[in-house]
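User: I'm putting together a teaching handout on how sequence relates to shape, and I'd like one worked example. Could you take DEAD/DEAH box helicase from Geochorda subterranea, show the sequence you're using, and then write out its predicted structure as tokens right after it?

Assistant: Happy to. First the sequence, then the structure tokens directly below it.
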Amino acid sequence: METRAFVERLTQDPEYRTRVQALRWFPARPARFAELSPPPPPPLAQALARRGIQRLYTHQAAAVAHARAGRHVAVVTGTASGKSLAYHIPALEALLADPSATVLYLFPTKALAQDQLRFVLELTRGEDGREDPWRLMPGTYDGDTPPDRRRRLRQSSRLLITNPDMLHAGLLGHHVAWGRFWRGLRYVVVDEMHVYRGLFGSHVANVLRRLRRIARQWGREPTFILASATIRNPQEMAEALAGGPVEVVEDDGAPRPERCLLLWNPPRVGHPPARRSANLEAAELMAELVAEGVPTIAFGRARVVAELLYRYTRERLERIAPSRANRIAPYRGGYLPEERRAIERRLFEGELLGVCSTNALELGIDVGQLGAALLVGYPGSVASMWQQAGRAGRKEGPGLAVLLAHDAPVDQYLMHHPDYLFAQSPEPGLLNPDNPQVVLGHLRAAVYELPLKPAELEAFGRWAEALMRLLLDAGEVWWDGTYWRWKGRFYPAGQFGLRTASDATYTIMEMESGRVIGSLDEASAFFQLHPEAVYLHGGETYLVHRLDLEGRVAWVRKEPLDYFTQAVAEQRVRMVEDPAAPVLERAVGPGSVRFGDAVVTQMVYMFKKIRFESRDSLGWGRVELPPTEIYTHALALAPTPEALAAVAATGRNPLEGMWGAANAVLGVLPLFAGCDGSDVGAVVDSGPHAAPAIFVYDRHPGGAGFARRAFDELESVLEAARELVARCPCESGCPSCVGAPVPPSSQVDPEQATRGRVPDKAAALHLLMLLTGAAPLPEAVSGAARGGPRRVPADGRCRRAEVEPRPDGSPPRCPIGTRRRPGRRDPSSLRRSRARRCRGIWRCGCGPSCSGWPSGRPTPRQRSETGRRGPGASRST
């Protein structure tokens, strides 16, 4: 199916055209070439020619020249620009020139490693079809590699492909056994650099510190070649990873096929209105594309979303194109290695027409001739969005990318600000290599790997010396007068992982067969594997019968269920004083903001059953699991008592305003901090001075830099949150602005906590306007036009007269009662039944006094909506 014809059909179809929020065609761009001097050696030049590569793009030639000269280099260009050749060419040249030379490739995902191994094998195959004529023995060394294969790679491999996790846990601690490899190390390739941000990036930066230290021990100073999608701060991020000056190449000379990016906003349904599920919308589009024979990939933001997309799409294909229902598959982490390899093979060979994936297939993988990419929800960063959109139309012909919005603030902000999305430069990559909670584990590992000199502590950040003293006091290291040496009784690198806050892993086992079907980290297990939870695997439903906390095993049974579960959690935040890390504080409008260390306590206490597709609630269940604590960084935004009083003077609950403002801030923060929704959290709790405050905190122990970024950019964040709420067309608040729905990306995923009902929009908007210094809301707008009551003026007249005059110009009659003295009932115009009806809807806009209550006294509706929380009560967002 031709892309333009399909897009035209969508924009003209009466059912779909109202969902198309914006449409942008990006024209094709020709290639720009450069000559490489000197040219590659003849065997490599011939191998490239067999692949149809006769000339290099400008950025490829520039990166190769820097690498040849021994300079660290980062090539930062768009999707499908051939970045991999920028490191393949110098690496293979070095291997051809010196039989003892070795090269290390690092990829963040196993799928990407397999893809690049396939390319290397094809490139180095001899003209007669003979494999590995250059005796490189390339191979992937990861958790899926069998023991005998690992042994052969250790003995003979000159081009080793692995990931940061295996480098951390399997290679550095056993460097003596890999002495042959370390003695010849010339290049270290770090692909998809933009992924190494936040907690993961902070860990990887420390792993590379350890790598450089071990390489020096074996007499090598390898050259780093880094590749990345476009980010705002490539120099800063590359130097943090490479540990030295880096040359950045950003002039993209690759051609680009014509592409279309379509912003798709699902319609509002139900009462109160909410957007239709983006998962269902994506499943309908994907089923239609696959039925037409268009190879399509759909990206979800969590494992459960990939499973739901697959389930919904397969069910639709069974109705409209049964022969193609088996030509789609889900792909995500947590599958067994043999399952992932089988899906990858079917995908790379073109056997599959569709795949529902997490971002595991986002990163630089050549998945063939894909015609469409569906992005289910904003991926969390502009860089990730363009990476996912670039999966379509990678080789020739136009590609279609569709960003389907969730009913979440950041998604709706982008739907109403398409120019921001199209023109916005990618966010900065933030990492904090000196995070003491991260550095502590790596110091243990470094001392185990090699005795540590005092001069080497500086490379591990400003906290390293103090942390080493802690290890000395704990009896894990000892000082011999020259070196720090390991004294512990365990293997340090095996005690912590790089990607999660929890080091513990739970095994998922089927009760009848005892078969292992997957694994999950501890933090996720508390949300997804509690008793009575529904675990999705391969589109099938498994009911969790028991969670063994001591053995770290979840026992599940496959059952045909028509619902999934969603965990409910509560958080509390407490700022802590640390003399070594002074608190930052400044004024923001009528309020103050503090940044510093904090303790976040989280507890999963119940779960909700939700029917597939309709998303109807089927009931609730109780969860009894211990609370968890993390020490991290947070900011506390505390409005002044006068600001809260100003909100209360409008007849609104100021705490409602704080909850709504917190939700809006959390929704737009990824646009400024370059973070994902899983990286940060927000809560309304008692602030540092016992007054209510909005907390925004890093979800990663020790902090990852996102709360600090929010502190620095708070004025811009608040302004974007205010505009988001003000421009939302809803009357009283919805999940798209001040609402706090559970994001679809975390339906049973722990990255974002459950957030309850929709707070009061008018209160949130009034508070945000005060904090940003915007013009105060007109009284009429702050009331019924924004949803909810207005204050009654002293003359007792209904304010509706000022909003909706009658055709003859005279004030309209209030549907309940017109003129009356404020604060008193008028029996002639206010009967009890009508008063109850007015309290329920406030359509006249007269405010609390019209319902028969004295001004300022809450109505039953207000009491049911706001509950009886006091200023010290907390609410998870």
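A couple of points you could highlight for students: The chain has a mean pLDDT of 80. The longest strand covers residues 591-611.
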